[in-house]
From TrEMBL:
Residues 3-92 form the ABM domain. InterPro entries: ABM_dom, AI-2_Isomerase_LsrG, Dimeric_a/b-barrel. The keyword Cell membrane does not apply. One of its GO terms (cellular component) is cytosol. It comes from Hwanghaeella grinnelliae. GO terms for molecular function: monooxygenase activity. This is Antibiotic biosynthesis monooxygenase. It comes from the Bacteria. Gene3D superfamilies: 3.30.70.100.
Length: 109
């Protein structure tokens, strides 16, 4: 059973394009450098271009821990901190939700 995390971000108006470019690099780094990362998608809200949602899928929660400890995650956080409006708790994602994937049309898990 895969482990899914869905962080939600609000990006500063003047940083939207830079954030999109950053997410292309970060998502590519995550899926190519991490054996436990099954997928990493960045989605932009159609009605509010400053809102983004990530859909990250890992083989298990330990793989997410590996992701968060990686050099490319530290690099991403350093780059994103001036682009993203922090949540009420000061973290970069304004909201973060964790799920256990129970079914998939591609692999049955």
């Amino acid at each position: 059973m895969a482990f899914v995390i869905i962080p939600e971000f609000r990006v500063k108006d003047d940083k939207v394009e830079a954030f999109k470019e950053l997410m292309v690099k970060h998502s590519r780094n995550s899926v190519t450098k991490e054996e436990g990362c099954l997928g990493f998608d960045c989605c932009q809200d159609q009605s509010d271009p400053t809102r983004f949602v990530l859909y990250e899928s890992y083989v298990n929660e330990a793989a997410l821990d590996v992701h968060r400890a990686s050099d490319h995650f530290a690099w991403y956080n350093d780059q994103a901190k001036d682009m993203v409006i922090p949540g009420d708790d000061g973290r970069l994602p304004q909201k973060i939700t964790f799920y256990n994937r129970t079914a998939s049309g591609t692999d049955g898990a």
